[in-house]
Every structure is written in structure tokens, then in C-alpha cells.
Amino acid sequence: DAGVIQSPRHEVTEMGQEVTLRCKPISGHDYLFWYRQTMMRGLELLIYFNNNVPIDDSGMPEDRFSAKMPNASFSTLKIQPSEPRDSAVYFCASSFLGGTREDTQYFGPGTRLTVL
Amino acid sequence: DQQVKQNSPSLSVQEGRISILNCDYTNSMFDYFLWYKKYPAEGPTFLISISSIKDKNEDGRFTVFLNKSAKHLSLHIVPSQPGDSAVYFCAATKGGFGGNQFYFGTGTSLTVIP
Questions:
Q1: Measured between CA atoms, how close is B50 to chain A, in angstroms?
Q2: In chain B, what residues touch A45 (CB-CB under 8 Å)?
Q3: Mean pLDDT to the nearest integer, A108-116
Q4: Is the model's pLDDT at A63 over the cut of 50?
Q5: What does the pLDDT read at residue B11?
Q6: I need a labelling partner for A113 at 20 to 30 A (CA). Which of A10, A46, A65, B84 fits?
Q7: Which of B10, B41, B9, B42 has the alpha carbon at shortest distance from B112?
């Protein structure tokens, strides 16, 4: 398997522009997570989905952030309008809860977002 | 509020010596703990985990210790190798199968000096 795929790897945009980050989870995984990595807060969970349904979006910082999962193989995280403080690395991760507690999350390579 | 804390942002160790990375948590409901390793420009990868029913789990050079009464866990790497230089994240999760939501610390950057 190719693992979790994220695109783009790098995104530079100007304040006020819309940004869309994309994620393809590992085939067969039923959970998908969006994280943001910052120096101050480490890996911060933004939202997660189970079987394409959003379960907990309490980590989404503001209404400017939205996420969708239209099918089992694709998810997007959108920021509109973007602000300089949104600059961070955004990770997507997926997992499969097969009934054991030994499950873990598999991360993509991340998207480094810079908002000027 | 940060429920999982890694108070040492960085650590330097000589090759061949022991590396000890520490992690504290505040939520007594956490029952499963993990360590992830992250190289630059890559996503975190799973390293080792421990259930709250154990106080030690070992995998090769990596051992995780859990002290539930102190709400503290540590990762020991023996012997440390230059390839171990990376950022290490501690994570914790609660019981049940309701989503596998992980709470991560801020990470510790380990440098192993040849």
C-alpha cells in the first residue's frame, strides 16, 4: 500500500485566499484524522471522521476551517479565508479499529502551509 | 489544555549511551499510550505502545515504562544510534472503541551525537 497520501506537500498563499488540503487514506481504514503541528501545541487534532462521517470537530479553530469526506478514499481540509497564523504543517492520518487496542494511526507526509 | 506534556523540547546524547524521553499526562482515564517518531519532512511513524495494564513494554532497543500513579511514562533507547535522531511524540488515548482519538504531546527533539 502507498500509505496515506497528502497533497500538496507545500502551499504558499496570501492572506485572504482559500486553501484546500487533500488526503487519501489507506484503503480499508475507517477512521481519518486531520492534525495541525505547531511548536507551541505539538500535534493538535482538528477533526476526525468514522466511515466518512465527522465525529468530533471540536478542534477546528474557527469557522474559517471546514473539512469534508465525500467518500472512503478522499478528504479535504479547507481554510477560507486564510490568515498568517494558519501557517503550520497539516497532517492527515488514518486507522482501522479492528476490535483490538493495538491499533495505531498512520500518518501522511504532511502539507506545509505558509500564509503570507 | 494540554493533557499530554513533554517538558523537554530537546535532548542530546552520545552514541551508544541511553536516551530517556519523558512524558506526563493529566487525564486518569487514559489507558493506552504510544510513542511516535518523526523525521524532518515526513509524517510521524508509530514506534512502540503500552497498555495501562502493563508497566513495561520492550521492543529491541526501545522500552517504554509506565507509572500510572505518577501519570508518567518514559521511552528508553539503548544503545542510542545516530539514526535515532528525530522528534519523538508521546500520545495517549482513552478506553473504548469510540474513535481512537489520540492526544499528543509537543514533542522532544533527540540528537544522537556520533
A1: 9
A2: 101-104
A3: 96
A4: yes
A5: 97
A6: B84
A7: B10
Q: Would the pLDDT of A99 be above 70?
A: no
In DSSP terms, A112 is beta-bridged to: A10, A89
Reported as a pLDDT band with limits 50, 70 and 90, residue A98 is low
Any A CB within 8 A of B39 CB: no
For chain B, which residues score pLDDT lower than 70? Answer: 95-100
Distance CA B100, CA A106 (A): 12
Q: Which of residues 42-81 of B touch A (CB under 8 A)?
A: 42-46, 49, 51
> Which of A6, A35, A43 to substitute to test the interface with B, most B CBs within 10 Å?
A43
pLDDT at A102: 57
What residues have CB less than 8 Å from B86, skipping those under 6 apart? B37, B38, B39, B109, B110
DSSP 8-state code for residue B78: S
SS3 content of chain A, % helix, strand, coil (to 5): 5, 55, 45
CB contact under 8 A, A48 and B99: yes
